[in-house]
Amino acid sequence: MGSMIGNQLKNTLNSKACTLLGIGPMSLNCVDASIDLATKYDIPLILIASRRQIDSKEFGGGYVNNWTTSDYSNYVINADKKGKIILARDHGGPWQNEVEKENSYSLRRAMESAKASYKEDIDSGFQILHIDPSIDIHSNPKTSDVLERIYELYEFCYSYAKKIGREVLFEIGTEEQSGSTNTQEELNFTLEQIQRFCKSNKLPKPTFVVIQTGTRVLEMRNVGSFDNPLRVENEIPAEIQVPKMVQICKEHSIFMKEHNADYLSDEAIQWHPRLGIHSANVAPEFGVTESKAFIKVLEDNNLPKLADEFIKLSLESKKWEKWLIPKSNISERDKALLCGHYIFSKDEFINIKNKANSYLEKKGISLDNYLKESIQKSILRYLKGFNLIK
Questions:
Q1: What does the alpha-carbon distance between residue 277 and residue 333 come to, in Å, rounded to a whole number?
Q2: Mean local confidence (pLDDT), 173-198
Q3: Band of residue 179 on the pLDDT scale cut at 50, 70, 90
Q4: Do 66 and 164 lie in a common domain?
Q5: Does any domain span residue 218?
Q6: Euclidean distance between CA atoms 179 and 250, whole angstroms
């Protein structure tokens, strides 16, 4: 890992004995909050954009601020005065974008499409690429098939980056959030195969591997086994399993990356650096935080009608469906909070926000500052618990 970004991450991990934080760019305010914190505390923060959030122009951009990949990266690179933000692609790969699913792309077409998206990432200065071919809308691919897809995308991205003189680090991981833990055999096998591939093709080894540590996000909580004091059936408890996984990663000189660390308790967050987890991603929690703050500031300032309009708009998007616990009986309001961030860049929402803004300004309240500060509080819990700041 002789690269500049790789060394920056390594030095941070060594000097702080910390866990690195990957933040989902859930909204413009979330991106601004992240840049402000990275600048203030002089620490690297990784912005992890999924293809649904941000994608290239040919895929219609994403739901965050209607940004295309290049708009987004230009914005961040210009605003990030100290150069502390690392741009990362989260869950890149075939069928990771709605266009490819809706049009039922064939494997070959979906792989070409994924490559086009990665190409734009590399052109736009993304520094970490997550290669995740775990989705297949046509079949249930075997491990060997998934590995073949990783190899193809890995080689493509590396060759292209090299050709245009860009440096990229790779994250591999073939998981969707299941809330269970990987087996050690699985991990060993995957890492051995990938490293063999890298060696025989003279490619750099991946920097991160995504590992299931028993975290899973549904509604506004983490329902996986990591934060569960009760033993979960057929699950090795995290405090026994994770150190073994960390050990395997050390043997392969690769960093361990956890996804879905949202809503963990302070205690579970503080366990991350102690267990040696190198990096963890948090995303939906910061989107929900902003929606909660938005409703709170409206209701606290006699704007319940606007709050109701926002709730109605959010419910109609139906984006909450994928976050529900089976047989859930959560309120309509909570459903709206789960997916408010998906509609922040829709005209109807901007209309509600503009009305709120002009009213709140008269009272000396800056709406976006209030929302940004709420997100920062939420991020700070992880920065402290992960030992990134004192």
A1: 35
A2: 78
A3: very low
A4: yes
A5: yes
A6: 23
Judgement on whether residues 181 and 306 belong to the same structural domain of the protein: no
Q: Which residues pair with 86 in a beta bridge?
A: 46
Same-domain pairing of 305 and 264? no
C-beta of residue 162 within 8 angstroms of C-beta of residue 209: no
- What is the token pair recorded at 11? 């030095």
> CA of 197: how far to CAs of 74, 152, 203, in Å?
34, 11, 8
Q: Is residue 390 part of a domain?
A: no
CB-based burial, 367-386: b 16+ in 10 Å, e otherwise: beeebbebbbebbeebbebb
| pTM exceeds 0.90 | yes
327-340 pLDDT, tens digit each: 899 999 999 999 99
The answer to whether residues 217 and 263 touch, using CB atoms and an 8 Å cutoff, is yes
Question: Which alpha helices (H) appear in the chain, and where do they start and end?
Answer: 4-16, 28-41, 69-79, 98-102, 107-123, 143-163, 184-200, 238-251, 266-275, 284-300, 304-316, 332-339, 347-362, 367-385
Please say if the pLDDT value at position 152 is more than 70: yes
Regarding beta strands 221-222 and 208-210, do their DSSP bridges make them parallel or antiparallel, or are they unpaired?
unpaired
The predicted-structure confidence for 280-327, as pLDDT tens digits, reads as follows 999 999 999 999 999 999 999 999 999 999 999 999 999 999 999 988
Is residue 239's pLDDT more than 50? yes
Nearest to 263 by CA among 227, 212, 225, 230: 227
Q: Which of 23, 41, 84 is nearest to 390 (CA)?
A: 41
pLDDT at position 20: 98
Q: For the chain, how many structural domains are there in total?
A: 2
Higher pLDDT pick, 213 / 352: 352
Looking at the structure, do residues 255 and 347 belong to the same domain, yes or no? no
Tens digits of residue pLDDT in 79-96: 999 999 999 999 999 999
* Cα–Cα dist 335/320, whole Å: 6
Angstrom distance (rounded) from CA 341 to CA 166: 32
Domain that holds residue 195: 4-283+381-385
- In 3D space, the residue among 63, 68, 31 whose CA is nearest the CA of residue 47 turns out to be 31
Nearest to 77 by CA among 47, 57, 41: 47
Residues 381, 286 contacting (CB under 8 angstroms): no
